[in-house]
Design a protein that fits this description.
Distance between the termini: 18 Å
Oligomer: single chain
Largest sheet: 5 strands, mixed
Structural class: alpha+beta
Radius of gyration: 17 Å
Length: 217
């Protein structure tokens, strides 16, 4: 089971690398050389982090936050500043004791950025990444003001002709199930809530990623 978990984690890295390279290609095709150089520098940093993190079963929150910031900065370049982000951490947490499985959060964050925030036309996108403890579990919450899952799915149908099940999301769900098995736990869980404004219009998504509050490297 532990080996299977490692294999699923390894499958996610090529998916992420492909999308990051697509971002660089987009910039080069539009003759944005300075941006392209920044992309390449950020991409090199990300690849080093991916390689280092992939050797570990768990990484510290500081390592995870650094990785996610680099990823988000690349996507901000790619989508020409269409969104902004912020990290929030509960003041009561001892961050030196917070560990997470590598590449667990990024696929959900990528889904938020690419299918939610990048599709906005009426407002600037915003996403907050919050870390806190709830009911004896740690929670990383992604809160965005994007187009919502229903509209994002419609756009994907128009683009590719049919509903597309994200490979990364499928792998992520398998990882959640295996993590519970490997750690003999029920704490690993992902809950996705659709958000609406007072008029009933889609107003973003909330992704809550739960994991045990006592995980050590």
């Amino acid at each position: 089971q532990a080996t299977q978990l490692q294999l699923l984690s390894a499958q996610m890295n090529p998916h992420f690398i492909f999308n990051a390279l697509s971002s660089i290609q987009h910039s080069i095709l539009h003759n944005q050389m300075e941006t392209s150089l920044n992309f390449i520098s950020s991409f090199a940093t990300l690849m080093r982090q991916v390689l280092e993190n992939s050797r570990k079963k768990l990484i510290s929150w500081n390592e995870e936050q650094s990785f996610l910031k680099n990823y988000l900065d690349i996507e901000k370049f790619r989508f020409e500043g269409k969104f902004c982000y912020q990290f929030k951490v509960d003041d009561d947490l001892f961050l030196e004791n917070v560990y997470v499985p590598p590449m667990l959060i990024q696929p959900y964050l990528e889904n938020t950025v690419v299918h939610g925030l990048a599709q906005l036309t009426e407002r600037k996108g915003e996403v907050s990444i919050s870390l806190f403890e709830k009911n004896n579990r740690m929670c990383i919450q992604l809160l965005d003001n994007g187009v919502g899952r229903e509209k994002a799915l419609k756009k994907r149908k128009l683009r590719i002709g049919e509903a597309h099940v994200s490979r990364a999301m499928s792998i992520s769900q398998q990882r959640i199930e295996l993590l519970n098995t490997v750690y003999n736990s029920t704490a690993f869980e992902v809950i996705i809530d659709d958000l609406y404004d007072t008029n009933g219009n889609a107003n973003g998504t909330k992704v809550s990623i739960f994991f045990p509050n006592e995980m050590e490297e």
